Amino acid sequence: MASVGAQHPRDVLLGAQGAAGILPVCDHYSGVEARMVKSLQLQAEMAQEFGVCVFDVTLDCEDGAPVGGERDQANLVVALANAAHAAPDLVASKLKRRIGARLHAVDHPAFAADVDIVMGGAAQSLSYIMVPKVESLADVQTAVAAIDAAVRPGQRDGDVPLHVLIESPAAAHRAFEIAAHPRVQSISFGLMDFVSAHAGAIPHTAMGVRAADDAVTLDQFHHPLVVRAKLDIASACHASGKVPSHCVVTELRDTSVIERSAQIAAMSFGYTRMWSIHPSQIRPILRAFTPSEAEIDLAARIVEQAIAADWAPIAVDGKLHDRASFRYFWQVLERAHQTGCTVPEPMRQYFPSRVH
Fold first, then answer.
1. Gap between the Cα atoms of 50 and 45, Å rounded
2. Of 29, 92, 169, 258, which has the fewest CB atoms closer than 10 Å, so is most exposed?
3. CA–CA separation, 205 vs 219, rounded Å?
4. Of all helices (H) and strands (E), which one includes residue 92?
5. What's the half-sphere exposure (Cβ side, CA atoms, 13 Å) at 132?
């Protein structure tokens, strides 16, 4: 077995593609003050439960802001992000929480104020910025320039990653060039706006999820235009080593619909992350994206033997494995850790210590 001081499997197998790291599989959005506070409390509680931050909280300056109250909303986001970042229980446990903020679109009158207030006041507390309604590479460049200009010297180490929201047919067409920008870490799909942008050409059923026994309704997983956009975004992200984040599912009560949708997004559409808009959706999404115990155990065995063989081809259970499958199974272990699973020994040495 290789020593801890040996080259890390992530560096061997992923190289530059792994530089951005793996993101939590769930991105939870909230914009009303009481819900933002509760979301941050739940994030802290579940981080203690799992020993790792298992979902992001994105505080919303866009949909959460009443008309005319945009500056107040931005200041509220700053206050909540800074307070959560300094929460003594998590700081003492050395648990790193992840908080982001969604700003207004770059062409919205409130964008400049959002950037000035949020980045000037909370850049040190934010893990990323979400920019909605991105239409082109130029929009990404505009956002990056504004954000960088607003961060004060010494306020944070490293650049602020961008998560972008693609919500139109034209933007989906440009997904590959948007994903290729070095500051873009993740792309999300805005289903509702995408459907409505087609002027009635896509039925409203494509905004929802059909029943498990329904083989006819063209829902968001079966309408060809929606499927094409989802696949284009996922493919663009994977081509540039970025994280594709699946869209909202509006069902709030039936958690089986959420879990089934998340499973389809992960297994059939190539998404490695998904939005939550209600606390009841977080655990079903987490379950859907968590590798099975059998897959985790197999991944640990294969990677352990690969390390022992200095990454040369090996046979496990009568099947040949090489760098390609090593990479796949290493990523299974990373996802297992990020979703709160205990990684088997001796692979555990390659992951941050768990806190309970």
1. 9
2. 92
3. 5
4. helix 88-93
5. 23
The pair of three-digit structure tokens given for residue 292, joined into one six-digit string: 């099975």
Distance CA 200, CA 347 (A): 52
Q: Does the structure show a pLDDT above 70 at 41?
A: yes
CB 266 within 8 A of CB 272: yes
Domain at 23-289, CATH from 3.30.465.10, 3.20.20.150, 3.60.20.40, 3.20.20.60: 3.20.20.60
pTM of the complete model: 0.91
Which residue in this structure is represented by tokens 């200009």?
A: 149
Q: Contact, 40 vs 99, CB < 8 A?
A: yes
Q: How many residues in the chain?
A: 356
CA-to-CA distance for 337 and 37, rounded, in angstroms? 26
Answer yes or no: is pLDDT of 192 > 80: yes
> Pick from 64, 49, 130: which is nearest to 41 by CA?
49
Those residues whose C-beta lies under 8 Å from the C-beta of residue 206, and which sit 6 or more positions away, are 191, 195, 218, 219, 220, 223, 225, 226
pLDDT grade, residue 351 (50/70/90)? confident
* Angstrom distance (rounded) from CA 72 to CA 190: 25
Whole-angstrom distance, CA of residue 160 vs CA of residue 183: 8
User: What mean pLDDT comes out for the span 268-283?
Assistant: 96
pLDDT reported for residue 263: 97
| CB of 79 closer than 8 Å to CB of 86 | no
Question: Rounded to whole angstroms, how far apart are CA atoms 231 and 265?
Answer: 10
What DSSP state is assigned to residue 8? P
The Cα–Cα gap between 127 and 123 comes to 8
Q: Provide the token pair at 57.
A: 């909280």
Per-residue pLDDT band for 353 (boundaries 50, 70, 90) equals low
The band of 19, judged by pLDDT with boundaries at 50, 70 and 90, is: very low
pLDDT of 252 over the 60 cut:
yes
H-helix or E-strand containing 177?
helix 175-179
Q: What residue spans define the domains of the chain? A: 1-22+292-356, 23-289
Residue 341 has pLDDT above 70, yes or no: yes
User: Phi, psi (5° rounding) for residue 290?
Assistant: -85, 130
Q: Find tokens 């700003």 and name the residue.
A: 103
